[in-house]
What we know:
Layout: E1 2-8, E2 12-19, E3 24-31, H1 38-55, E4 60-65, E5 68-70, E6 75-78, H2 91-99, E7 102-107, H3 108-119, E8 128-133, E9 137-143, E10 146-148, H4 179-182, H5 184-195, H6 201-209, H7 213-237, E11 241-245, H8 253-264, H9 269-273, E12 276-279, H10 286-297
Parallel strand pairs: 1-4, 4-7, 8-11, 11-12
Antiparallel strand pairs: 1-2, 2-3, 5-6, 8-9, 9-10
The protein binds zinc ion.
Zinc ion (ZN) binds next to loops.
Amino acid sequence: MLIAVFDIGGTSIKYGVVDEAGSILMDDSFPSQAHLGGEAIIKNVIAKSRELQHEWNLDGIAISSAGQIDNQEGVVVHATGNIPGYTGVQIKKTIQDATGLNVTAENDVNCTALGEYWKGAAMGAEDFLCVTIGTGIGGAIFTDGKLSTGSRFSAGEIGHINLYPGGKACTCGDSGCLEQYASSSALQEMIFETLGYKMELKEFFDRLRAGDEKCTWLYNRWIDDLTTGLKSIVHILNPELIVIGGGISAQGDFLLNPIKKSLSSKIMPNHAASLDIRIAQHANQANLLGAAKHFIDCGGGE
Length: 302
Ligand SMILES: [Zn+2]
């Protein structure tokens, strides 16, 4: 079985071809041009799908996408302003009608979790939480070996746990949410507010490794906010594992160890004793693998 896979985000659309064993046979990306809107993005995905159809004997198309996605009907239930006009877009039907192939769609963080469960850091785990840290903070919940998506495909929005009531305004319409304090963007904003100038995170981590005091102070505060958010989830779900993904997870142990230390000091000992925390193994490719896994689990989009 050969599946064309797409990962639709606000900045870029990654794509590839994956077989039923989870091997990625090719992958590449193109800019999303999100400002053109949700319908334009799907048109671009259709154009790329047709190219891939010429080169590969495809059995279907699997989509991982930003936004809250009805993973049965393949419809965008809700999307933020990052992709204008995306809410309500019928991903599955539109691409299916245009290509004649079976199509499935699933939320991107759920795909990260599925990809890591299938081939990565969460292999063998039945109850785990996947957290992606980037522009925002996303969450996916795995319970008894299955994704738990809630009554309307919107569970796991852990970026919107309230951390500071009345705090910074959030994209969800409320204020004081976790992602306003503990996302990668929030870290960059804190750096700017504290140091008075902008700094790429690569440089920040270089300085941190060199022992810079101000950077260390900032990082500790950021980790403290992140683990205060995670503490609530751990006590509610009692997971065996937290998988940390998103761009910042490239920092590896330099991210993992302070999270472990800080979180274990905040949660009840019985929760701490049974909890493992790992960095996602597949970085950018986890969503492509997860989309393919969802397609296979759906019986090939039938
Ligand atoms: Zn929020």
